[in-house]
Amino acid sequence: MKLLKWLSVADRFYKIYLDKQFAPFGINSSQHMILLKICDSPGILQDSMMDMFYIHPSNIVRTIAALEKQGMITRSPNDQDKRTWKLYPTDHALSIVEEIRAVCKKAETLLLQGISGEEKDLLIDLLMRAGKNITTELHIEKKEGEFDD
């Protein structure tokens, strides 16, 4: 039970930390990963976002709608399939993306304070394996490259 408690504590408080740090940018801890992915892959298909994150599709749609409303992204129809959308970062998103990355890096540094490089690598490996274990138990299929980062 200790593991579950401390995973929950770390999750809850790093999200509070990120929410405070991201507030000046108009985003929150549940939006930053999606925004970073769109900035890294302009024109990415909205449907492919659903395959990248372990987030319910309705939450992806809601997050994308919020980012669009906030002026962070734009959507355009996919020429190959009009039922899907291509997602693009706005100039505003591109102007703050490095600051968002810096906040993420600082959050990781805080979480890993006092942990050696070797221990950090081991922790990441163990958390990835734990994630694979629970998704396998829940019969959630791994998408290509999903556990790579």
Question: What does this protein look like?
Answer:
The protein has helices spanning 2-22, 32-40, 46-52, 57-69, 91-111, 117-137; strands spanning 44-45, 73-77, 85-89. The radius of gyration is 17 Å and the shape is globular. The chain has a single domain, classed as Winged helix-like DNA-binding domain superfamily/Winged helix DNA-binding domain (Arc Repressor Mutant, subunit A, Orthogonal Bundle). A three-stranded antiparallel beta sheet has the order 1-3-2. The chain is mainly alpha-helical. The longest helix has 21 residues, at 2-22. Strand 2 and strand 3 form a beta hairpin. The model has no long low-confidence stretch (mean pLDDT 91). The two termini are 27 Å apart.
Structural class: mainly alpha
> Remind me, CATH topology?
Arc Repressor Mutant, subunit A
Total E-strand runs: 3
Quickly give the CATH architecture.
Answer: Orthogonal Bundle
Mean pLDDT: 91
Main pleated-sheet profile? 3 strands, antiparallel
Shape: globular
Beta content comes to 5-15%
The total of helices stands at 6
How much helical structure, as a percent, in the residues?
Answer: 55-70%
How big is the Rg?
A: 17 Å
Order of helical and strand elements: HHEHHEEHH
